[in-house]
Amino acid sequence: MSESLAKANRDRSDVTVVAVTKTKPVEQVAELYRLGYRHFAENRLEGLDEKQAALPQDDIIWHFIGTLQTRKVKNVINRIDYFHALDRLSLAKEINARAEQPVSCFVQVNVTGEESKHGLSPAALLDFVYQLEEYPNVKVVGLMTMAPIEATDKELQHCFKGLKQLQEKVAALQLPYAPCTETSMGMSQDYPIAIAEGSTFVRIGSAFFAETEE
Ligand SMILES: *Cc1c(COP(=O)(O)O)cnc(C)c1O
């Protein structure tokens, strides 16, 4: 991580490391907490239940990173600080209805147009963001993407650059409900490239745990 930051000429405080704990036992997550990590991400309601019950209540920042079924919004939305997978208006509507205060959301974008991926197409993004004005409990803090798994460095670069440009485009609209200053991009396989392209939230699962197990 430090190496990637140095190479990209970026400061440690520019990038939030989100530990993706979705498949990890509570003991390992508690160990990360002891080491000082405070941003944790789950992708299922059950995982959130388990980890939140076992870990300290006051100072953890919780992220939800997976596809969220509309019917589960009410069980999740008031227990998290960031939601990384806003990809449809029906979901925004339900979040708006169930949230007790504005929720920091990342709009998920499918930058490369892979069929298997969730997220809006770049072409549909601006319209989508404009329509979110109707939902004051949805605050668009940034954009999120998942890069293709078997991509070359060049393709990854292209994908992350694309998301960064879209983020800047939305930010330039200066919509009060969509500051859109952040990008959630970069996972174990590709975070150095994401950091080089300006990511502000990296979501690290496997590599992160491999490192702390040494
Ligand atoms: C699992 C997951 C990650 C972390 O993946 P790793 O390859 O283990 O780092 C990041 N983002 C999302 C949306 C995930 O589902």
List keywords for this structure.
TIM Barrel, 9 helices, 39% helix, binds pyridoxal-5'-phosphate
Descriptive account of the structure:
This protein is α/β, with parallel strands linked by helices and 214 residues long. The chain has one domain: Alanine racemase (TIM Barrel, Alpha-Beta Barrel), CATH 3.20.20. Strands 7-6-5-4-3-2-1-8 form an eight-stranded parallel β-sheet. It starts with a helix and ends with a helix. The relative contact order is 0.15.
What string gives the helices and strands in order? HEHEHEHEHEHEHEHEH
The structural class is alpha/beta
Number of helices: 9
How much β-strand is present in the residues?
A: 15-25%
| Sheet of most strands | 8 strands, parallel
Distance between the termini: 16 Å
Pfam families: Ala_racemase_N (PF01168)
Keywords: Pyridoxal phosphate
Family: Belongs to the pyridoxal phosphate-binding protein YggS/PROSC family.
GO molecular function: pyridoxal phosphate binding
